[in-house]
Design a protein that fits this description.
355 residues, alpha/beta, Rossmann fold, 7-stranded mixed sheet, 3-stranded parallel sheet, 12 helices, 14 strands, 19% strand, binds beta-D-galactopyranose
């Protein structure tokens, strides 16, 4: 009898041990810190524009692929709401926070609250100012502006330029403009370029950009030669105003973000170029950073950005000027948009060969 009990006990111990090994194996697939599954907070400021929807989806997918749990939400352009959403995430318990600020000037309290809970904060493509921000992951902002201005000058080396910037509260909008002027200023000074309009579109919203452009076109009686638009949503609004005046496709206009609608406008000829910032790479890098930080691993940076409080350790990813000549090689071959989506309004006989 005693032998049977001992055998049964050994059998139970064996099953328990094997079960644990499998459980460990499963949990090892989860991104873990101190044996617990890592929880990543993803706070997105605004999903009204296409690119941020892509960013959020890509980040959530990357986190889940790494076995981390994700709490994500959008503040829909409301800076106060974003702060309270972040506080709620901290209450629910996150190990690290990735944040795309609505307004980087008002989120320092969110960084302080996160640090009180031992949570590090990574700003994503928009910096959080005047705070002890831990990391910033982005693209070369000044480089975006330089690419846009350089491209437009090649198309319109002399003429009347309308400068259409983004939201004044977005530090990026100022950096794009700073980069643009690094290229443009000398052509303004020598008289080759005359600035006939300079506007900043609230919230980067197409409807705001459209109204501003209508006003500029009226003021100059449609006498302009180029539009330096800082991103695709503002270019969208400006092009709608150009369409009203029968000028769409006749006035070169820049953009940024490689939105699908912008890529379609580029191959159809109403928008001239966009700056492609490979969001899949940005989202992957941000989440890998977050999981590594939460796991206590060392992470490498390649730049710093001043945020009014410190030089924030940062990472700059590469950017690319895209027009109809390289749309396939850069945007489509990168898998950011499909050939059929980009060329859907172009008659098959006029399309370049499918890659
Ligand atoms: C900026 C960002 C741009 C563009 C814009 C509109 O902060 O750097 O790529 O997306 O917001 O949302």
């Amino acid at each position: 009898m005693g032998k049977r009990i001992a055998l049964a006990a050994l059998l139970v111990l064996f099953c328990f041990t094997v079960g644990n090994i499998f459980a460990e194996g499963a949990s090892e697939k989860k991104a873990s810190s101190a044996g617990k599954q890592i929880v990543v907070g993803v706070s997105v400021g605004d999903l009204r524009l296409e690119r941020w929807k892509r960013d959020m989806d890509l980040m959530v997918a990357q986190a889940e692929s790494m076995g981390a749990k994700v709490y994500s939400n959008s503040a829909d352009g409301d800076a106060k709401l974003q702060l309270s959403q972040i506080e709620n995430m901290l209450t629910k318990g996150i190990n690290v926070l990735v944040c795309i600020p609505v307004n980087g000037k008002v989120l320092a309290p969110a960084v302080e609250a996160a640090h009180r809970d031992g949570v590090k904060v990574i700003a994503y493509d928009r910096i959080i100012e005047d705070s002890d921000l831990d990391y910033y992951i982005t693209f070369d902002m000044l480089g975006v502006g330089k690419l846009q201005a350089t491209y437009l000058l090649k198309k319109v080396p002399k003429g009347r330029y309308y400068l259409l910037a983004g939201d004044k509260t977005d530090n990026n909008a100022k950096l794009f403009r700073e980069g643009q002027m690094m290229v443009l200023q000398k052509y303004i000074d020598n008289g080759d370029v005359k600035v006939i309009g300079d506007q900043w579109a609230e919230g980067w919203l197409p409807e705001k950009a459209m109204k501003l452009t209508e006003n500029v076109l009226t003021a100059v009686n449609n006498q302009l030669d180029a539009i330096l638009a800082s991103n695709d949503s503002t270019a969208d609004g400006a092009i709608q105003a150009l369409i009203e005046q029968g000028l769409a496709g006749k006035i070169p206009i820049t953009g940024q973000d490689a939105d699908i609608a912008a890529c379609q406008r580029i191959v159809e000829g109403t928008q001239t170029m966009t700056v492609y910032k490979p969001l899949p790479r940005l989202a992957k890098a941000a989440i890998e950073f977050a999981v590594n930080i939460a796991s206590g691993k060392e992470i490498k940076t390649n730049a710093t950005y001043k945020n009014g409080f410190k030089d924030v350790p940062s990472v700059n990813l590469d950017i690319y000027a895209v027009d109809k000549t390289n749309m396939i090689d850069l945007v489509i071959k990168d898998g950011f948009h499909s050939y059929d989506d980009v060329y859907k309004n172009v008659p098959a006989k006029d399309r370049p060969p499918r890659p």
